[in-house]
Design goal:
Length: about 300
């Protein structure tokens, strides 16, 4: 009765990786229990999450063809657009489309590369195009994760001009240059071929900068702000909760998932308790919603009265 923080299945968002190159599910080596899925299995996966009370999925795509620009990201026939169109035919689940180019570019960077670095202003124009393609396919929300300056404003403008005033933006506002994304880059095949992302992702030592990033995103029209990763940045979530009225999402990232899986597989930690404790602490810090690879497993436990 006196517990202050209760986790609900409604707090959770389940990521989905749809891969155009496979015809059967392929388990991600560094993320036991998480799969790259072929197009025709996406609806089943999303409905399974929905059946457990999870209201939304976050969609990532791995295209057949990568190029210098990442053009499959905004092609009407691109893998995510196809998956969303299919899914929206037959599912109650809300679809959030991750919006970035790193899965689509041959060099693995999050945008257009010029003279060896990512060009911010060219990139946000491409993000606008991608958002419109995703909305056209039926995405309920778009989630730009590239950390370019001005990306929210550019996407908002592009969506509005195309008649998608009602499609909200969940912005990866405070996204740190983190070692905890390692396993994800396996899954999404999005490791940069040269350089790194430290020109646009944040320094782990900075907290005030995160607040400024969130404030800028809100001014540009973000509807939901995100902190990522979650566990090493609970102080940032808390600060944001105190400072802003907007809904806050936290991304419990791949490395945070894999560490618990690996320790549990060795018998070094109690899997279910560690999972629920992590998720509860993220909510306690102030997150309204949690993107997590544990979504389905946690939902099962919550339903069972954990
Ligand atoms: C990039 C993106 C990343 C994640 C989500 N979107 C990784 C990166 O910046 O390299 C990481 C998610 C995770 O680790 O679970 N578009």
């Amino acid at each position: 009765m006196v517990r202050e923080t209760r986790l609900s299945t409604k707090d959770l968002i389940s990521p989905i990786f749809v891969d155009e190159n496979i015809s059967r599910p392929r388990e991600i080596r560094s993320m036991p229990g998480v799969y790259n899925l072929p197009l025709d299995m996406v609806t089943k996966e999303a409905n399974e999450a929905a059946g457990l009370g999870v209201p939304a999925v976050l969609m990532f795509g791995i295209p057949k063809r990568k190029d210098e620009e990442g053009s499959e990201a905004w092609s009407a026939a691109g893998v995510v657009q196809r998956a969303i169109r299919e899914l929206k035919k037959d599912s109650p689940v809300a679809v959030i489309a991750d919006l970035c180019l790193c899965e689509y570019t041959s060099h693995g960077h999050c945008g257009a590369v010029k003279d060896g670095t990512v060009n911010n202003d060219e990139t946000i124009e491409l993000y606008g195009r991608t958002a419109v393609a995703q909305a056209r396919a039926g995405a309920d929300m778009v989630a730009p994760s590239g950390m370019m300056d001005g990306q929210v404003a550019a996407i908002r403008r592009a969506l509005d001009e195309a008649g998608f005033e009602d499609v909200p933006i969940m912005s990866y506002s405070a996204k740190y240059a983190s070692a905890f994304y390692g396993p994800f880059r396996d899954a999404a095949q999005s490791t940069p071929q040269f350089g790194d992302r430290r020109t646009h992702q944040m320094d782990p030592g900075n907290a005030r900068e995160a607040l400024r990033e969130m404030e800028e995103d809100l001014m540009e029209g973000a509807d939901i702000i995100m902190v990522k990763p979650a566990l090493a940045y609970l102080d940032i979530i808390k600060e944001a909760r105190v400072r802003f009225e907007a809904p806050i999402a936290a991304y419990n990232v791949s490395g945070e998932y894999s560490m618990i899986k690996a320790a549990a597989a060795n018998g070094w930690i109690d899997h279910d308790r560690a999972m629920m404790e992590s998720l509860t602490s993220i909510k306690r810090a102030g997150a309204d919603m949690i993107i997590t690879y544990f979504a389905k497993e946690a939902a099962k436990l919550i339903k069972g009265g954990f």
